[in-house]
Hints:
two-stranded antiparallel sheet, 6 helices, 2 strands
Amino acid sequence: MGLDHALHNEELCDMLLQTKKYNDWVVTTAFYSAIHFIECKLFPCKIKGKDYKTFNLYYDNAIKTYQLSKHSLKAKLIFEMLPEIDPHYRWLKDACQTARYIDYTVTNGQAEASNKYLKIIKRTCKS
């Protein structure tokens, strides 16, 4: 998946933002785009002396130690390795969780903030 998937989701996020009609999907596509940008930035990498090509390979190994969900383990990595985007990632994660599972009604302001945080994450990950 990787960078192409991140850009694909970002493009849809931008298009949906313009409609001001599907703000729950703006939040969702922003979050999933951010995930792909972050994974491209973090992987491949070495963690505790072991090489990992992808987040999924890391997760398969780390789940034995941490017993966290993929999203929680990713949040832990971001907090440790990309602290400058941690607040933006956590905001998107929480907003997406709410939009998908609790209340799909998302304001224009929340949708705009989602897109803004995605752009910050993208810039940080591409540098």
